Amino acid sequence: MASLYLSNLTLSHFRSHKRAVLEMDPRPVAIHGDNGAGKTNILEAISLLSPGRGLRRSSAEDMTRRPEALGWKITALLHGPLGVSEVEVVSEKGSARQVRIDSKPAPQTALGRIARVLWLIPSMDRLWIEGAEGRRRFLDRMTLSFLPDHAEISLAYEKAMRERNRLLKDMVREPSWYAALEARMAETGVAIHHNRQYALSALAAAQDAAETTFPTASLTLECDMPDDVEAMRAALSDNRMRDLSAGRTLIGPHRADLIGTFAAKGIAARDCSTGEQKALLVSLILANARALAADFGAPPLLLLDEVAAHLDAGRRAALYDEIVALGAQAWMTGTDDGLFDAIGDRAQKLLVSETDGISNVTVQA
Predict the structure, then answer these.
(1) Which CATH number characterizes residue 215's domain?
(2) What three-state secondary structure class fits 86?
(3) Does residue 363 have a pLDDT over 80?
(4) Residue 309: other Cβ atoms inside 10 A
(5) Is 160 within the bounds of a domain?
(6) What is the rounded distance in angstroms from the CA atom of residue 133 to the CA atom of residue 158?
(7) Total tally of structural domains belonging to the chain
(8) Whole-prediction pTM value?
(9) Helix-strand-coil percent breakdown of the chain, rounded to 5?
(10) Domain identity same for 214 and 190
(11) In a domain, 33, yes or no
(12) Is residue 213, in this structure, part of any structural domain at all?
């Protein structure tokens, strides 16, 4: 199986990093340093090598280094199944970011064809106990990892829905104003639903086939909508009066929820302990990575921010073993170098420190 890894990552005026140049090999990367030193900023930069808004969902302007506000640039040398690609992601003075692959302008979706990136960050620890929107976003990130075109389909659906919602809020009743929008929403909405189901099937198969220390999470997609385009179009039309009263669209994939269950115990994920919820998330990320390794031809880049939080020493060691066995270049952060003792020299280590508001990166091994 091919490898997917970064051999070079250069950050210029990105967040706390005025300039950082990292030369890496295919092994996992353990990043340690004090809170606020700039560890997560490195992971965020790597997340921008995939379609979407990155792991913090920040605007391009928010990612520029202050006080200079000159804009920022990320350059990466990416090795993958399709060969070696030089990727540049640039924002000039807060403008929307631009992508270049091998010096040629490219859409964000092109990133999904040369690389796959997954991440697990501390804010996701509350996934099972907060609102459905976060779970939909989590599911769509997993779906996007398998199907890069999922992003464009989702944007088309959201655009049509916004226009329909505007008509609803304005109490427009003329059917002809809705027909084209509802046809577009039906086509893209059903595609979103089918894409999500495909991703869940791939995850389930990857979990069933794996021997892992981490608990299996059974996932169910709750979505009250037809899975046929014509039936969905008719449902939107029939629901129009109810939607007029609400001022928004009440059926569709934007109303879906992802329900997780600790399979071995039959307990809803939302009712599990904090440690169990973290272990279920790790299990899903690993299953996603295993499924992608088979689907894409190489394991994805893994971004695991403060991954040791809520994991005991045994599960940390098991996680490192699975990452190494998978062959993934996992970028992991932690405040203490000792959190990575169990991975030993199977990983390369970076120390991130801060001096006068500037992050400094030292390669240790």
Answers:
(1) 1.20.1050.90
(2) strand
(3) no
(4) 14
(5) yes
(6) 14
(7) 2
(8) 0.93
(9) 45, 25, 30
(10) yes
(11) yes
(12) yes
Here the tokens at position 56 are 């913090």
CA 322 to chain centre: 20
In the predicted model, is pLDDT for residue 270 greater than 70?
Answer: yes
- Give the whole-angstrom CA distance, residue 87 versus residue 334: 27
Based on the number of CB atoms within 10 Å of its own CB, is 159 exposed (0-12), middle (13-18) or buried (19 or more)?
middle
Of how many residues is the chain composed? 365
92 lies in the same domain as 173:
no
Cβ atoms of residues 326 and 289 within 8 Å: yes
242 and 187 in one domain?
yes
Q: Give Cα 321 to chain centroid, integer Å.
A: 22
Is residue 165 assigned to a domain? Answer: yes
b/e code 211-225 from CB counts within 10 Å (16+ = b): ebebbbbbbebebeb
- How many CA atoms lie less than 13 Å away from 27 in the CB half-sphere? 17
248 and 308 in a single domain? The answer is: no
Residue pLDDT, tens place only, 233-245: 999 999 999 999 9
269 and 337 assigned to the same domain:
no
Same domain for 159 and 100: no
Spatial distance between the Cα atoms of 185 and 46, rounded to a whole number of angstroms:
33
Identify whether residues 178 and 44 lie together within a single domain: no
Q: Which domain holds residue 317?
A: 1-116+298-365
Given a cut of 90, is residue 67 above it in pLDDT? Answer: no
Question: What are the structure tokens assigned to 250, written together?
Answer: 């009440």
The yes-or-no verdict on residue 114 having pLDDT over 80 is yes
For residue 260, give the 3-state DSSP assignment.
Answer: strand
| pLDDT tens profile 172-221 | 999 999 999 999 999 999 999 999 999 999 999 999 888 888 999 999 99
Beta bridge partners of 261: 218, 268
* Contact indicator for 37, 336 with CB cutoff of 8 Å: no
Could you report the per-residue pLDDT of 123-175, keeping only the tens digit for each?
Answer: 999 999 999 999 999 999 999 999 989 999 999 999 999 999 999 999 999 99
Residue 236's φ and ψ, nearest 5 degrees, are -65, -40
Are both 45 and 165 inside the same structural domain? no
pLDDT of residue 365: 59
Pick the range with the lowest mean pLDDT from 51-60, 266-275, 350-359: 350-359
Q: Which of 240, 274, 308 is the last residue of a domain?
A: 274
Q: Which two tokens stand for residue 45?
A: 């930069």
